[in-house]
Amino acid sequence: MTLWFVFALMTVAAIFAVLWPLGRRARAQSQGSEGQGSEGQESEGQGSEGQDTENRGSEVAVYKDQLTEIERDLGAGLIAAPEAEAARVEISRRLLAAAGHEPAPVPKASLKWRRAAAVLALVGLPLVAIGVYMPLGSPKLQDFPLAQRGSGMARSLETLVVQVEQHLEKNPTDGRGWNVLGPVLERLGRFDDAARAYRNSLTYNGESAERRSNLGEALSAAAGGVVTAEAKTEFERARALDADDPKANYFLGLAAEQDGRKDDAATIWRALLAKAPADAPWRPVVQSALARVGGGGALPALSDETIAASRDMSEGDRGAMVRGMVERLATRLKQNGDDVEGWLRLVRAYLVMGDRDKAMGASTDARQAIANDAERLRQLNEGLKTLGLDG
Amino acid sequence: MIAESGHYALVLALGLALIQSIVPLIGARLRDVALMNVARSAALAQLLFVGASFTALVMLHVNSDFSVANVYENSHSMKPLIYKITGVWGNHEGSMLLWVSILALFGGLVAAFGNNLPLSLRAHVLAVQAWIASAFYLFILVTSNPFLRIANPPIEGRDLNPVLQDIGLAVHPPMLYLGYVGFSISFSFAIAALIEGRIDAAWARWVRPWTLVAWIFLTLGIAMGSYWAYYELGWGGWWFWDPVENASLMPWLAGTALLHSALVMEKRNALKVWTLLLSILTFSLSLLGTFLVRSGVITSVHAFATDPTRGVFILLILCLFIGGSLSLFAGRATALKQGGLFAPISREGALVLNNLLLTVACAVVLFGTLYPLAMEVLADFKMSVGAPFYNLTFVPLFTLLLLAVPFGPLLAWKRGDLLGVTQRLLAAGVAGLVVIAIVWAWTRGGSALAPLAIGLGVFVIAGAATDLAERTGLFRLPVATTLHRARGLPRSAWGAVFAHAGLGVALIGIVCETTWNSEYIATMKQNDVAHVAGYDLKLDGLFSRQGPNYREMIAEFNVSRDGETLSVMTPSKRSFTTRGSSTTEAALLTRGASQLYVSLGDATAEGAIAVRIYHKPLVLLIWWGPVLMAFGGVLSLSDRRLRVGAPKPARAKQRLQPAE
In which domain, by residue range, is B432 found? Predict the structure, then answer.
């Protein structure tokens, strides 16, 4: 509200600046002093000298002004007497020449136009001001001077980051600091800065597979998710340090996928899943990636729409979607166990997801469900054999 | 609150400028005093609001309010206070705001001190100022608004371009803008004269001091910019004929011509129409400079950001004002009253020659600047016009001009005596020749032109001194009389002497620096010694240091000559984390007017560092010259006399004396 009050005051001041000369003239006229005081408000307190000269032709006025100026300068000792005399002669000569043919313009007062000007100021000025300001300004936004933000606001993550950054600016060899800063910057989306933090961490903390692959991850994030050659080098270095580093392997698979080598990608990811502990949090991510390149054979058949939808999801969401579909398939088969193809798909899905125990359980369930149908049982056993589950 | 108030103040200034560009014109047409007086109060109010807006932006930068996009993009909370303030105009939006602030300042000055101007002239002048102002307010608000906000303000800014984090930014742009924009006054007066259809006596009286003010600032601004480039960019160059530099040189050349022709107009009431045209051209060139620098047509340090809409907008303003004013001139100039006549050999004649040479030189620079651009746009062919072109064209023109400079002030008004002047300049000519001979004998070899050019510089200086000696009767009259005369000499005469001598000084500096500058480029390790022009520089070591918003690597050099230690020089390389860029800070050792210049290159892994060392003889003269010129300008400005070129009996007698 204060802001609008300030705006209003400013507008009034601006309007006043336009109305003032208009108003003053009107008053002067009503006092019957037309032809005088043409200098308007500024002559106030300066004496009435030169006020009536204006209307008798500007040339003459200027020369007269110059003559008085000579006297003043001479009096103040600014110019010498002979110079003053010479100048006086020259000016008088010009004055005579000017006075001869200069018609004196008579000032007129056109009240109609003055009113129009007043209306322009009263209506036009606020309209223009609001019309221009409203689409551009943000009147609802408060000021945010830095000093106030530090104490008044809750110390946000960003504030902490800034503090750590300032600390590191002064102590750039603090490797632990860079280690802490990297992931936070990455989460804030400042990938370039994160990459720099990881680089510094490598410099001051020494080599490690984890740091290399973190750097690679930041680099590819900065490149909008593309595993660039630079990022790939980092992942390869990480794998050279630790062949089982999951992040490096995952991204190398991704690099292969982005290069169009889907089979290579699938191989890398399958190997990764095979070695992975069962409770690794990144499992679903890799599984869904594998599903994407079709490396898991046919997972629960995904329609084109679902694939398209899944493309826009984050890795975690995608994993959740796949798991959900597998669950639905399992429930359906429990109710109607005749579908051999369905059972095989389920087993395959569990295998792809790296859940061997569940795959075994599913194959046992399948055998029980179709035990009375020899033909289907044969099909099932054939299928399980190709999946590499017992005989 | 500060941000939005500043924004709104700018919008109000636009509104006032719009009123100021229409109402006074109607008033002048109707001869309505009140309507004409609106110009004055509107101009003052406009100054108030733009001033408030500019102050608001400065406060936002000082407070590091990163909710303002401009502050976020160009500031950093850890920047020293001085750079927080100078950073306000270290970016496109802020510098445009400075531009209009100065425009409003000049408008306000006309409004405040224009009491003795004819009312209709003042109304017209202020209306024209308001046209320019409106165009630029719109430009700022629409394409480069410094008050745009960020809803979720980041906690830290992106910092100012490190190259600009220097004291030079505090001085160079404001000076240059005072110069550029100052010419808008003479432009507005010219347009007002064309609209009114006559040149008032007041016109002559006003144009010269305003042009002089603008010229002084422009001279200092260009010199400062050149010195800044010299020490900051790290390779010791001080003029590159780069389009942006040319953009400031062209208004300077035209402005210098205007200054001299305004002199003729003021004293002799002649050359009126020509002065009018020069006023228009000078400001047009200032606008062109703004366009070249701000539109992003040229990429350089000065093009903070490139945005096609901005370019198109400024081009539009440019066409409107230059095209409009020149067509107005073409239409109305013939109706104007011409001034008095004069003989070709006279002070006026010399000033016409000066104008001729300066405008041709200006045209040459204009051609050299625009031709490559035109080729690139029209023929898709990249080329650059550099020093060789200007050496062939600009340099001969200026040599001619410099040869003529000493003659001008010695010639009398109306009718001059060339032979007499030549006789009186004999001493100066002899001095020049003696210097040529000495330099020739001293150096042996090198460029044959260098001693000649130095001789020319000495001739110009000696010529200025001759003028002084003639007027004061030095060596002819008793010392007391001379002193008395010197004191009585009008300050504008002293001003002319200093300004002309400044030209000679700058010329000598330029020639010495380009001819005898020696350089040493090498990779140095600790305790290595470099020998440059008789100086020994020993690298004592490399150190790191933490600055407020940068880290710097400092190399310490022990400078000695003939085994005697002179000083320690510490050039450094600063790296700025936020922008991820670095600057070289050259170290300068001044010995007289010469300088030793050390700047650092890249460090190698083995702890060695690439070093560039230059010895630049008399290099400082290049900038002392312009400072001298500006000092002359200030003296001339402080001269309160009325310049009415009246014949002076005392002077006539004095002129006869040498013939005795």
Answer: 410-516
Collect all residues of chain B within an 8 Å Cβ-Cβ radius of residue A165.
156
State the pLDDT confidence band at B623, using cuts at 50, 70 and 90.
Answer: very high
Instruction: Report if residue B584 sits inside a domain.
Output: yes
Residue B450 lies in a domain: yes
- Select from B516, B547, B573 the last residue of a domain: B516
Contacts of A124 in chain B (CB under 8 A): 15, 19
B571 within domain boundaries: yes
Strand order in the sheet with B518-524: B518-524, B609-616, B594-603, B587-591
**Domain end marker among B484, B501, B516:** B516
pLDDT for B340 equals 64
* Local confidence band at B657 (pLDDT 50, 70, 90 cut-offs): very low
Count: domains in chain B: 2
Classified as helix, coil or strand, B166 is coil
Tell me which of A78-92, A218-232, B232-246, B638-652 is least confident.
B638-652
CB contact under 8 A, A169 and B2: no
Euclidean distance between CA atoms B29 and B23, whole angstroms: 10
- β-partners of residue B531 are B536
Q: Do B600 and B510 share a structural domain?
A: no
Smallest Cβ–Cβ distance between A18 and the set B5, B19, B60 belongs to B19
Name which of A2, A108, A142 is nearest B32 (Cβ-Cβ). A108
Q: Do A7 and B155 touch (CB under 8 A)?
A: no
How far B15 CA sits from the closest chain A CA (Å)? 6
**Residues forming beta bridges with residue B551, ordered by sequence position:** B546, B575
Question: Residue B46's pLDDT is what?
Answer: 96
The pLDDT of residue B59 is 95
* Chain A residue with the nearest C-alpha to that of B62: A145
Query: What CA–CA distance (Å, rounded) separates B83 from B104?
Result: 24
Enter the CATH code of domain A298-391: 1.25.40
Could you give the dihedral angle defined by the CA atoms of residues B263, B264, B270 and B271, in that order, rounded to the nearest 10 degrees? -80
Domain extent listing, chain A: 2-29+51-136, 298-391
State the complex-level ipTM: 0.85
